[in-house]
Amino acid sequence: MADIAWLMRRLKAMSIPEVAWRLSQKQIQKREEKQFRSYKCSVADELFDKSLEGLSLDADKMRLNFENKDYSLISSIPLLGGYNYEKFKKKWSAGFQTDNEWTDTFSYSLNYKQRDDIGDARTNWELNRHFQFALLAKDYYASGDKKYLNELTMLFEDWNKKNPFLWGISWTSVMEIAIRCSNWCYTYCFLAKSDDVPTEILAQLQTGILNMTAYIENHYSRYSSANNHLIVEAYAIGQSGVLFGKQKWIDLAVSILTREFPLQNYSDGVNKELSLHYQSFYMEAVGLLMRLLLKNDIEVPKSWYQWLSKMSDYLTTCIGKYGEAVEFGDNDEGKILDLCGGYNHYRYVQGLMSCLLDRRFTDISDCCENLKWLFTDEERTAVSKKERYIPKKCACYKEGGNTILRSDDERILIGIDHAALGFGSIAAHGHADALSFQMYADGQPVFADPGTYIYHCDIENRNALRRTENHNTVCIDGKDQSEMLGAFLWGKRAECKLIDFVEDKGNVKVKACHNGYLPVIHTRTYTFNSRDELCISDEITAESAMAANFILAPDTEVRLSKNAVHISTKNINAVMKIGCEKDFDMRIVDKPHSRKYGVYELSKCISIKAAANKLEIRIKIEER
Fold it and tell me: 497-529 burial string, b = 16+ CB within 10 Å, else e?
């Protein structure tokens, strides 16, 4: 019954055209199922669409920096949740969170959502995105050491044998196929430029790329599902279009991405998913295709430059002096290309944008290895001569709904959320965190966002990390501001309104409200003064059981006194002072926290409860 109830709620979030499109997709799937259910074959063995037979992948069109001499030789990739790659590298169907495996089931019949009996599909997909294929191909090209080619060949043959086209967990998401297709493209290009590579593996890679691209073309995301997934899928179609010289694919990708910029992003550069990581993920996809178009003398729409410039400004504004980042909403650590076995995604995307746009957003003198293969030494050197974007001390994104504050010495970084819940009719990656905040000092989190934890299992804790009571905001009567209907589905949602934003002589005031507790309205005012003191004033329109929660970073020590809280980390001391006209209860409680995807832990929370309609908190970071 729960599945039927979820389906009914999901249908309510769809328009009539979307329902019609999904029904047409079901018809395509039925034809594919008829073809491939009784005939299991590798995606790399034969070309399914014979009209593509005349196409050939030109590795030169990838325009990689094959002269690069600054590289690593790493043969493993990081797995989500900290799982050991060597243990799982051939366990393509591993459940990870359990010892069970995903069954050999036709992909359209495989239910991968909320499978506590098996595990989290997103964790499994990371292995099946095949970053390791491109990494090993790069290693072989750079070193000439056959052990990398042998390892790649072994993994490639094993994967194709165990993962027939449209069978199993690795074929359940179009976006996952798009990322895999992209990594096969990079694998092919490095191998094509290497010595003594069997022609068979090159032919198989080419066939697989064509088959996957044709599949993506028939199934790319639309309507309420057309978020970052669509962007990555369009990128993969466009990349294949350039490499194979297929204009239809190039035109389709460019038209989708050009159309989606204003649909998926606010005019001030904030992505409507309202997740900083999904914004950088989106930017990586567009940036990789933009680079490919430019290097092959294919015109890039002018609007791309304008949108990516604003998006880069916002991304950079959210990142502090020490590399700390203000992150609201989900973060599943998604990426498209990894030629070095792990890196800082924000800094990489800042570097990618610095190479493509007329300004730079980071220092790329010690950049991610991806950029050393994507751009020549001369191109990267030229970036250092570009004007650098310097974030303002105070930046209020009135349309996007976030305000970022910095102290004059940049020791303190604060993010304030007065945004919508999320993007579109389902707001998939939003959290019920209206009017919440985050604070960093000297690069270390003091008041922290709880994080994401996991997507496709352990729904109780997935939901816990999205609940209002586990964010740095006010919770009334123990309720959530917005209504959770599924792991990626919201119903009734809080609406935020920015009431006032004032900068005056070094003081900043941000005042906003939301209606998530109707008929009660919650209004919060943040004041950041020239003494680097943050004042938070909460007011509700009726006396209720109001709880203001302040989530501390893990490993934080805290001590309560009568009207104050003393907080200390390894390098930071802070004092909170509480003002309330009525008696209040203040205590330290445990709250769920996730520093990285797939990792669950507990952190301390300062919970201040009062049957009142006003509460004032003053926070001061002390010198140590």
Answer: ebeebeeeeeebbbbbbbbbbeebebbbbbbbe
Q: What is the pLDDT of residue 370?
A: 98
Cβ contact 525:536 at 8 Å: yes
| Phi/psi at 274 (5° precision) | 60, 40
Q: Is the dihedral of CA 175, 180, 181, 186 positive or negative?
A: positive
How far apart, in whole angstroms, are the C-alpha atoms of residue 466 and residue 448?
A: 13
Please choose, from the candidates 349, 356, 391, 398, the residue with its C-alpha nearest in 3D space to the C-alpha of residue 370. 349
Distance CA 474, CA 101 (A): 41
Residue 466: CB atoms within 10 Å: 24
On the question of pLDDT at 623 being above 60, the answer is yes
Of 185, 176, 306, the C-alpha closest to 228 is 176
Indicate the pairing of strand 484-486 with strand 359-360: unpaired
* Alpha helices by DSSP H, 487-567: none
Question: Taking Cα atoms as reference points, which of 68, 133, 131 lies closest to residue 367?
Answer: 68
Average pLDDT, the chain: 95
Contact 155, 205 (CB under 8 A): no
Structure tokens at 92: 């393509």
pLDDT in tens, 455-475: 999 999 999 999 999 999 999
State the CB neighbour count (10 A cutoff) for residue 32. 19
Per-residue pLDDT reduced to its tens digit, 290-326: 999 999 999 999 999 999 999 999 999 999 999 999 9
CA 238 to CA 336: how far, in whole Å?
Answer: 14
Q: How far apart are CA 287 and CA 352, in angstroms?
A: 7
Confidence bin at 505 (pLDDT 50/70/90): confident
**Phi, psi at 397, each rounded to 5°:** -95, 90
For the segment 26-41, the average pLDDT, to the nearest whole number, is 88
Residue 332 contacts residue 125 (beta carbons within 8 Å): no
- Residues 575-607 pLDDT 10s: 999 998 888 999 999 999 999 999 999 999 999
User: Would you state the pLDDT for residue 545?
Assistant: 84
Residue with tokens 């309202």: 274
- Quote the DSSP letter at residue 40: -
Say whether pTM exceeds 0.70: yes
Cα angle: 154, vertex 157, 162; to 5 degrees = 120
Please report the DSSP string for 470-507 in residue order: GSSSEEETT--SS-EEETTEE-S---EEEEEEEEETTE
DSSP for 289-330 reads: HHHHHHHTT----HHHHHHHHHHHHHHHHTB-TTS-B---S-
The phi, psi pair for 525, rounded to 5°, reads -120, 125
Strand partners, 95: none
Side chain identity at 512, as an amino acid letter? A
